[in-house]
From TrEMBL:
Domain of life: Bacteria
Lineage: Bacteria, Pseudomonadati, Bacteroidota, Bacteroidia, Bacteroidales
Name of this protein: Uncharacterized protein
The species this protein was found in: Hallella colorans
Length: 32
């Protein structure tokens, strides 16, 4: 589930649309 969020964040980052997912990905990476 977290991996999917990170992947979705990547796509959103390319589209420059969702900063929330980007933060979620950063938090997930910090937990890892």
């Amino acid at each position: 589930m977290e991996q999917t969020t990170c992947l979705a964040n990547r796509m959103s980052k390319l589209i420059k649309h969702s900063q929330f997912l980007h933060m979620c990905c950063l938090v997930t990476k910090k937990q890892l």
